[in-house]
Protein 1
Amino acid sequence: MLNTPEPRKTRLPFEVWALVAGGFTVALGYGVVAPVIPQFALEFGVSNFAASAIVSAFALMRVVSAPVAGRVIDRFGERRTYITGILIVALSTGASALAVDYAQFLVLRGAGGIGSALFTIAATALLIKVSPPDARARVASLNAAGFLLGGLLGPVFGGIVTAFGLRAPFVFYFFTLLAAATVVAIALRGSSHAARSVPRPGTEAPVAFRAALVIPQYRALLLSVFAFGWTSFGVRVSVIPIFVVVGLHGDPATAAWVLAAYAAGNAALIFPAGRWGDTMGRKPLLVSGLLLMTAVYLLVPAVPILWATMALMVVAGMGSALVNPAQQAVLADVLAQRRGGNVVAGYSMASDLGGVLGPLIAGALLDAAGFGWAFSVTAALLAAATLTWALVPDSRKLQSADPVDTAPGR
């Protein structure tokens, strides 16, 4: 048998590494501060509901600010929007360490949500612009791995930082955000990719949201990221821990191990998924990953055994690793290195809406009808996204197609 050498990998631009480093730094700091946010709110003598509302306020402001972030990007560029947004989060976080009452803390976290929408949407748009067309899934997996590593290390640092008091994590996050802003500002200062669009001839204007909606892959993407946000950012972190404690008679520590199993499955496939997405295409990964996640959420309430739940969470993490980079690669295929702030904002908004509505609706179903219904509705949503991707062509074919209309507007 002849040994055929593998195709040479495309060398990634330095801008990619700068953005991944910035994302890792942000995730590290957030992993430190996130667990103490409700605890800090309780220090002001409010109810558990009011303490939880602090988290919801941040998420809500991310959702409502997404369309504004898209317009800001199209007008001022991704690099300026990224730095502005991350500085807003830094200042609001640093000020939170000085908050003297609940109202101040609530307003500051809401302001942080606005800044978060600006810089996360700008970061996604920047990654799309600087990603080589034949390495888009690989860049997305590298970025996801940076966030995953930062999120895993954050609680480790958090245990050390929290020893200095509940205000200390906010100070720590303030400095990590400044570090991320500095890295990106310096690294991308002379970048032609980050400073301007890299359009095809005759497509200098930003890609309009209405024009992107004409593309079936983008419509499928909006449903997919909504389902992914509902499941991975919502139900997984809200209903799964309750299921472990109530349904499996575990404790909070056991719930943490179950979520760690998900992270382990995600880490196992995150890098291979990037390679496969660029060689096999986006569609096979999206269909297979969503199918895995659908099966998991159908089986979890049907097999109420701790070791089985942990094994299923590993599989869910593997499915998530297949889906997440492929989704960002589809978005990159739609934009084809052109500016499209509103298109990226729509993608981010769909994911955030899923993350906000998932816990609320699944929680209501849990109270009204039990775990079976909560997980079954989640599985049905994932199945709908799977079917949608099965019916549309792979988005890599868009690279050779005519560019979409780029007329201004939404």
Note: Confidence is low (pLDDT under 50) at residues 1-7, 197-203, 405-410.
Protein 2
Amino acid sequence: MGAVVSGGSPAACGPACVEAIAGGRPIRPLWRNESGGLAFLVGAGPDSCFVKWAPAGSGLDLPAEAARLTWAGAFTPVARPLGQGADDSGSWLITTVLPGQNAVSPRWLADPRTAITAIGRGLRALHESLPAGDCPFSWTARDRVADARRRAADGRLDPARWHEVHQPLGVDRALQLIADIPPVDQLVVCHGDACAPNTMLDEEGQWSAHVDLGALGLADRWADLAVATWSTEWNYGPGWAAVLLDAYGVGPDPGRTDYYRLLWDLGP
């Protein structure tokens, strides 16, 4: 997820590569994430495109996202990669622009039940559409636990950045807890960042597409569901998790939810 950034002249909006991609077309900044990644809408109407930029050394892997978009696009509505590149300052990914609005646009923040229902239905459709048996990408708990251990060894786990419910655990206890991986409920191709802003809604309030698939991969469906329900609290307030689970078609699973939220906090 990213924070909205203010507009301005093209020179103030982003790196030189975005200006070059724009070729004189208008540039509108959309968001900035915690790793310094930026996103822009370039152009208008049928001539528009979406540009992501990641600074060098940020750890954001835009080629990996392009590969996932290309694979997933054969099965479910996602943006289509149009081009990518890199220079000394960073890398970029150009994609098509999807119609509709994301689930945290002002219209849908004012109608949370419609938005959250769409998120749940969209996530179920994504899990059912993407063929787990053919997926070349992994997001399994086992792989993520191994990555958390590597980053802990490098001193790159910072409890101060975790949710307040996890901060008192500290690194050692958190690593102990995530080592106890729950049995898989259902193996699916997970979105990898099923937060509310990454579901697009059409004019009728139905889910229409998904964005930000950089971590897409095989995992227990609760890896997505735990974060999706958590995101309803962040974006709409408490009390909405049951609406999302009902729309998805599954009952609550507190154990897996707690586990995968902790694992999320320990992620990059």
Note: The chain has two domains: 10-95, 101-265.
Protein 3
Amino acid sequence: MIGLFDSGVGGLTVAKAIMKSLPTYDLVYFGDSARAPYGTKSQQTIQAYIRENIYFLREKGVKIIIVACNTASSALTEEILEAAQVPVFEVISPAAQAAAQISHSRSIGIIGTSGTVKSGVYEKTLKKIAPDARIYSKACPLLVSLVEEGWITKPETASIVKKYLLPLKSKQIDTLILGCTHYPVLKELIAQKIGKKVNIIDSSEAVATSVKEYLKTHPELDAQLAKTSQSWFYVSDITTQFKKIAQQILKIHVKLEQV
């Protein structure tokens, strides 16, 4: 099985991308909704949560783990990766790699939560891949709440997105990274407001592609993964809103189990 975890509902966009890219592969998702958001916690606390989440998924028998959360991805350490004992994928490197490959002008924008933008993790990763890139970041702290409230098509959301993107439009970027796994829910609106000439990099799609390519080159691991098209969704707290947004993202009936 392929395991994924996030602080809550945003990582379901990654689960959706995996289900689309690898439709026959069994999947286990854990949303740590009782302790969300991770972005307000210390690095030490987030790393403790990561270890617990990895342990939970390992107990479920997963052979690959995807950290479907930008905050948690930025808090990973070599010690955590080694202790996981299975390949661990995060959402930052694949998105940065995709942006570096597709950008012609080398002018790249990033939107994310305040914590992700403040960490500078995307800038550091991009500079390793494309030292000549000009990188512009913009924190968009309200977007997660708007997604979780289900305000996807509200005019207020469109106005807020437009205002957030204005500084990046003035920089004439040609590529924009959605640096939060909630943001793909607003991808159409973001694309509309940033303009047709700007490439949108969806981190959920980027990591799904990365996992698929990895399995092609590691057939021995691929052979260990169950392929019965089944999915299990666990959360640390079940709320009506979580159920609603999960249904909206995945477009299928989702049975949540609390752990």
Note: The longest helix spans residues 43-59.
